[in-house]
Amino acid sequence: MAIDSTIKSPSSSSSPTLNSTQLVRDVIRIEGKYYDTKGLASTHPGGELIVRLSNQTDGTALFNSSHRRRFPHDKYKHLLIKEENVDPVSRMAPNTQNYDLYFEICEKIKPIISPTQGFAPWWYFIKVFVLVAFVIGVDASTFIWARPLWVTAIQSLFMAWIGLNVQHDANHGAVSRNWKINRALGLTQDLCGGTSVAWSYNHNVVHHVHCNDVERDHDLDIPLLRLMKSVPWTMSYKLQQFYFLGLEAVFGLVHVVQTQVWMWRGPDEKMRLVGKDWDLSRAISMIIPLRFIGFLITQPTIHDALLHTALQYCLGGLYLAFFFLISHNFCGAKKEGIDSTSGCFVTNQTETSSNVGGALLAFMNGGLNFQIEHHLFPRVHHSYYHKIAPTVRKMCQERGIQYMHFPTIKDNFVSTFNHLEQLGAKPSE
Ligand SMILES: [Zn+2]
């Protein structure tokens, strides 16, 4: 499956002005134009990481949705690379999505997010402190206290809330205008067993840009679940609406293991520009064996140590996976037919996501229950989502764009259950 909009165009462009050894491989395509990745990264006020992670992809959607304005081509014309000088392996079809309605909505929400220009309000940092201090405090206590399982269970939930409330905003660049604050808080992803580098690529560069695009969104590729019709049907999927919760319970642990293996294997061709950040994630990942050693020291048996380790990642993982799954997999969620490289950006993002609940759930889950607003405005801090939702909803409904908001988690869950049941049923010949 393709991982971004790099549906390769035939390398039949005009004869290159550079010889084949001089062709430029590290490029990002924005509104049809190719730019030098390292050049853009070095001048990016939001930090180099996200630009380097976007290497060899079309960055139009990511730029527009992160900055809520069009790319300033004039300002960066010195970094332009002629198409004939781009290495054929890095050439891709241009993103032709229409952003007219998107920028119209951006104008409408401007006054609402103006108090902090869309970044985090002061009180948010109290929430960050409480969540991070609790997880680190419990971790530290592991070496001196044979803590009961319920403490590990609560810590696991706090790790999930860090994932939703801290690293998520931070790795989207939504906490502060200062990229160093975002980067520092983004590393809490590594603290919880993931890696900020892998997460930022898979989430920001792939999932957000290509939401529910069956050709490109990796998040539809979950083993043992049939989340799209292109997955060949087998008998086992008939019960997926029942077993998906069990699968999600092991999601956290599997994710931690997979991420670590991926990270220790080292960066591939596309990711080789993020070496320093990769090394930092590797260093922080030492916290995973350290936690286990702590359990071995204080827990009575190795069995108890393993139980704590599994619970530490499984419970939080279940919480995260549950809320993720119900927000893009429900009756009416658009999948087949979505082409994230063309059509209307607002329609593509809105009709593939759903909202649930209100401001209280948004406070708990980092605004990710307002998935529509989050996908449209990933770099607006989550504390604004419930405030901008009525405006987004009105503008979408006026244009006949599906806007799905479930009143309760139960309503959303029932819709997800039915959706999985439909996809798990044997397709008619
Ligand atoms: Zn996100």
UniProtKB/TrEMBL annotation:
Membrane spanning stretches: 122-146, 242-260, 305-326
Short name of one Pfam family: FA_desaturase
Signal peptide: none
One of the protein's GO biological processes: lipid metabolic process
Organism: Bodo saltans
MF-aspect GO terms: oxidoreductase activity, acting on paired donors, with oxidation of a pair of donors resulting in the reduction of molecular oxygen to two molecules of water
Protein name per its UniProtKB record: Delta-6 fatty acid desaturase, putative
Domain Fatty acid desaturase, first and last residues per copy: 150-406
